[in-house]
Amino acid sequence: MKLFVANLSKSHHRFFWQMPERIKINVTDIPIGQQRQIGGDLSAEQVNRIVTHHQRYGLLPAKEIPNLRQYTSLCYSIDAPVDLDTFYEGYERNDNEIQARSEEMRAETVVAINAQTSQMLDTPVHRTEVEMIEQTTGGTPRIAAGIEVVTEGTRPRHEAAPQKRRHRG
After folding, report:
1. For position 167, what pLDDT does the model report?
2. Percent of the chain at pLDDT above 70?
3. Assuming Cys at both sites, which of 2, 74, 148, 149 could form a disulfide with 128, CB separation 3.0 to 4.6 Å?
């Protein structure tokens, strides 16, 4: 049997594995957006042991990627490389999940800044605006985003989609 492991993340991955009958720990480097065959021809027991060990760390069968609704960095396929469509679907889904988590965390941070500022000043802060800009080395903004937090009854300065606006009450 052959075991293929695909790296769906945006980080280089060092895949550590061990044969059941050996003490030596092997490592296979899997670059960003690529997949590698683990070992050579493996027995069913060896594949099962490697897969079972790594499932606790999020390794999933490639066939589960289309139904996946969460981030996963690695998937595997037995006897054939991970299908390219499945691979790219998982990679893109991860990218979208990371972006959504990032937006949520930034919004929660601004809410916390607003609450802490209100507490420090001992008076309600009705509006907090934070702008984040990531620039390339040339100075041209690649990412620019703003978050506005308003207390209940305060009209936002910037009309935004309802899911982007945060209220603190």
Report:
1. 47
2. 87
3. 149
Nearest to 33 by CA among 70, 96, 75: 75
Rounded to 5°, the CA angle 19-34-91 comes to 115
The pTM of the whole model exceeds 0.90? no
- 12, exposed or middle or buried, with CB in 10 Å at 0-12, 13-18, 19+? exposed
How are beta strands 74-78 and 3-7 bridged, if at all? antiparallel
Q: Is 106 exposed, middle or buried (0-12, 13-18, 19+ CB in 10 A)?
A: middle
Q: Does the structure show a pLDDT above 60 at 155?
A: yes
Q: Which residue type occupies 136?
A: T
Q: What is the pLDDT of residue 160?
A: 58
Cα separation, 82 vs 15, in Å, equals 16
By DSSP bridging, strand 127-135 and strand 141-151 are antiparallel
